Amino acid sequence: MKIATKSIAACALLVSASATFCQNLQAQEPRNVVQLSAAGAVEVQQDQLVLTLGTQADGKDAAAVQAQLRQVVDAALQVARRQAEAPHMEVRTGQFSLYPRHGKNGEIAGWQGRAELVLQGRDFGRITATAARISGMAIANLGFGLSRGERERAEGEARAQAIAAFKARAGEITRAFGFGSYLLREVAVSSHGGGGMPPPRVMAMQAKAMADAPLDVEPGKSTVEVSVSGSVQMQ
After folding, report:
1. Which of 113, 154, 155, 183 is the most exposed, fewest CB within 10 Å of its CB?
2. How far apart are CA 126 and CA 84, in angstroms?
3. What is the band of 23 on the pLDDT scale with cuts at 50, 70, 90?
């Protein structure tokens, strides 16, 4: 009987504690909270060019094909490295692939390979002029984008716009509901746009031919956007 009495008392204590806990939770639930978002956008001139040169080789022996590709790329690197100077122009090797060519009966009849060299930077004239000096490689594709410094500058400007718009909207909503001020509860800032190169324009021009007819390149513009979202508590 004493054990049963103790169990009932313990249960009553738990029920009482649970009720008090629930009441505290209800009392702590935020009130007059509004979710909102704002954005800022900056349009900037693309200041970076990526020009990809490519070469192909075909033969019956895989090692010979690979050696032929290496020879062309090494010669191109010697020319390009003399003009390389960051951030005006940087040089790097691109895709290097070697794959079998099959005959009618499925047997390996030969080998095909492809190698690429990438010229990238902010000096468009230097890049196109360097490409014109490289023989044995054709322009595979060309694209424009934003350099890291320009993208960060644009993001900072767009972020300031977004934050100012968020604060202005929070103030307008607060006053519209008849409150005098608000507290910032949580906020998230994200940026997008202008981060990478757009789809490149596919070219099919021998780089050496550009010496007589230089490639005329004209960049476009990129839009960098920053969004701010969160909640405020009106008071």
Report:
1. 183
2. 9
3. low
Distance of CA 216 to the CA centre of its chain: 27
Output the CA–CA distances (angstroms, integers) from residue 71 to 55, 56, 78, 137, 218, in the order listed.
Answer: 11, 12, 11, 11, 32
CB contact burial 127-140 (16+ within 10 A = b; e otherwise): bbbbbbebebbbbb
Angle at 156 between CA 197 and CA 194, to 5 degrees: 10
The predicted model gives 17-44 an average pLDDT of: 76
Specify the DSSP element, H or E, that contains 212: none
Going by C-alpha positions, the residue among 152, 149, 198 that lies closest to residue 49 is: 198
What integer pLDDT is reported at residue 202 of this predicted model?
A: 44
Binned at pLDDT 50, 70 and 90, residue 217 comes out as confident
- 115 close to 55: Cβ distance less than 8 angstroms: yes
Do 36 and 108 meet the contact criterion of CB atoms below 8 Å apart? no
